[in-house]
Amino acid sequence: MSAVFADLFRACLWLAAATALGWLLDGAPGALMAVLMIAVYLITRHLSRLAELIRWARQPVGTETPSASGLWEQAYDALRRRARLGAEQRDELGKLLDRFRQAAEVMPDGVVILDGHRNIEWMNARAELSLNLNSSRDLGTPITYFLREPEFLAYLVQSHPSGSLLLRSARSPGQTLQIQSAPFAAGRSLLLVRDVTQIQKLETMRRDFVANVSHELRTPLTVVAGFLETAADGIAELPPDDIHQFLEMAGDQAKRMQRLIEDLLTLATLETDAPPQEEAVDMPQLLAEVHSEAVALSGGRHTITLENIGPATLLGSYKELRSALGNLVSNAVRYTPSQGRIDLCWRSNAVGAVFAVNDSGIGIDIQHLPRLTERFYRVDRGRSRDTGGTGLGLAIVKHVLERHQARLEISSEPGKGSSFAAVFPGRRIQAGS
Ligand code: ADP
C-alpha cells in the first residue's frame, strides 16, 4: 500500500510543480496546460509499462523480468514469486511422479495403465517383458491389439472385474499370466500382470506326484488286500503250496511299498533339510561298501570291478553319498543282463574328482536322458518294477549331488551300455588326500 501512496505522492509533486511553473509563466491557462501535459505523460508512461508487462508475459517461462520501479517493480516481484512457487510445485510433482514410476518399475509384477479407450498409457519394464511389448513403440495402442484372447476381452469389458484371470497368451508362449484389472479415475484402469508359470508348474508337479504315489501304492496294496480276503475266506482250506505262494507275493509287495516309502522319505529329507554337516568321507571305505553291495545284488551274474585311484577323502555327508552312489551301482546291476560287465571307478579329473559307473547293460535311448532324474520317470516301467525299482533312485542321486555342488553326467547307447558319472568340484577334495 505504501508504494501506492509513494507513487501517488510522486505524481502529485509532479502536478504541483508543473502547475506552479505554468502559473508563473502564463497564469491560469499556463497552469492548466502544464497539468494536462503531466497527466498525459503519466498515463503514457503507465500504458507503456503495461505493454511491456504484456510483452514479457508472452515470452517463454523463465524470461528475465524488465527492470521497473515503484508499483511496477512490486508487480514484477509478485509475478516472479508466483512463477517461482509454480516452478517449485512443478518440481515437487515431477519428483513425486518419478518416485511413483521408480516404485512401479521395481514392482515384481507387470503394471500397465490403460486410458478410457483401453489404450496403453504407461507400462513398467516387467509388463514389457511379460507381455512381450515395447514401451517406445506400443504406447497409445489398444491393449486388445496385443492380447486378443476372447477370455481376456470378456474379462476386460466387465465394469467391476471380479478376481483375476489366468491367461495363456500367444504373445508369451509357454507362459501362464495372472491378470488383474483395477478400474480407477476417469475410466482408466490398472492392469497387474504376474507371471505364474513356475507356480503353475509346481502345482502340476504336486498333482502328478500325488497321482504317481497313489498309483505306485495301488498295485501292491491290491495284491496284499486280495491275499487277506482269500485268507479270511478260509486259509485252512487252501493247499500249502498256494498259501506259500500267496505269502511270498504279499511279502514282495510289502517290501515294494516299504522301499517306496523309504525313498519318498529320503527325497523329502533331501528337499527340506539344511545342507548336511561336512565330514571327511573315507572314500576307500565307501567304495568298498558300494562294491560289496553290487556284488551281493548281482549274485554272481555280472563281472564287477572297482578301480580306486581318486582322493582318499571327500568333504560331504557319508550317508547321502552312500545312498547316491549305491543307487547308481544298483541301477547298473538291475539294468545289465547276466554275464554283463560293470566297472566302478573313482579318480581325479581336471576340476575335482569323478565317480563313474560304466555298464554293458541295456542302455537308454538319447531322448530319455534329460528326463531320467525326474521323480517316477522310467524308460521301461515293467522292467523297473520287476527289478525292485521305485522310479526315485536317480531323483535322489540328483538331489544329493546338488547338495554337494556336484553334477551327474549320463551317456548311453541302447544295447551297448551306459555310463553314469558323479562329478565333484575341487573344493570338496581335502588337500593332501
Ligand atoms: P528305477 O527305480 O526305475 O530304476 P531310477 O530313478 O533309478 O528309477 O532310474 C530311472 C530310469 O532310468 C529307470 O527306470 C531306467 O529306465 C533308467 N536307468 C537308470 N539307470 C540305468 C542303467 N544303468 N541302464 C539303463 N537304464 C537305466
How would you characterize this protein structure?
The chain is an alpha+beta fold. The chain is built from eleven helices and twelve strands. It has a five-stranded antiparallel β-sheet with strand order 2-1-5-4-3. Strands 7-9-10-12-11 form a five-stranded mixed β-sheet, with helices on one face. A two-stranded antiparallel ribbon has the order 6-8. Helix 6 packs antiparallel against helix 7 (240-272) and helix 7 packs parallel to helix 11. The longest helix has 57 residues, at 2-58. Adenosine-5'-diphosphate (ADP) binds next to helix 9 and helix 11. Adenosine-5'-diphosphate binds next to helix 9 and helix 11.
Features of the shown structure:
433 residues; alpha+beta; Beta-Lactamase; Helix Hairpins; 5-stranded antiparallel beta sheet; 5-stranded mixed beta sheet; 12 strands; binds adenosine-5'-diphosphate
Residue share in helix: 40-55%
CATH class of the largest domain: Alpha Beta
Summed up, the helix count is: 11
Radius of gyration: 44 Å
Seen as an oligomer or otherwise, the chain set is single chain
Lateral arrangement of strands in the main beta sheet? 2-1-5-4-3
CATH architecture of the largest domain: 2-Layer Sandwich
